[in-house]
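[Automated response] Your request has been received and processed.

Submitted sequence:
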Amino acid sequence: MIKRLTIKSFKSIKLLELECNRINVFIGSPNTGKSNILEALSYISYFFNFRNNIGPSLEDFIRFDHRSDLFYDNEVSQPIHIKFDDYSLQINYKEQLSDELYLKERKLFHGDYKGYPFKYYKYRDREIFDSTFPDYLLPSDGRNLFFLLLTQKKLRELISDLLKPFDLSLGLR
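Generated structure:
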């Protein structure tokens, strides 16, 4: 769980410092930055899961037309900072977007973590589930869901229990 979140120069957010709880609710008028807070967290998920061109692109995690849209007031000379607890993610724009993660001022590389708990999901209608990674539901769209249901009995039971009140049943073929 994130205890403290700081976002600086990301999209419409000039500076946000937030003490987090187990459950956080964002309430406000349209276009006040609520979704941008979630997208900053999505960037963290993207960094840990797909930064090295494995899987979905950044556009699957964050809404933007041009890379400069990620920066507050499109000011690409000011880096984006997303800090959470002891971690700090810095995003720069030179000729292309680059990012680096730090843990207590020590630079970490993408390969230092596997299965980090930040996982962003954006579900899509699918007819083909072609991925066979067995450990957890893959961000960003759960393309290994069918495989998980086939191979994990507890998950099948959980889904079946969720469907029962609606007189539905899980059928796998």
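Summary generated for your ticket: The chain has two domains: 4-120, 125-173. The two ends are 37 Å apart (CA to CA).
If you did not submit this request, please reply to this message.
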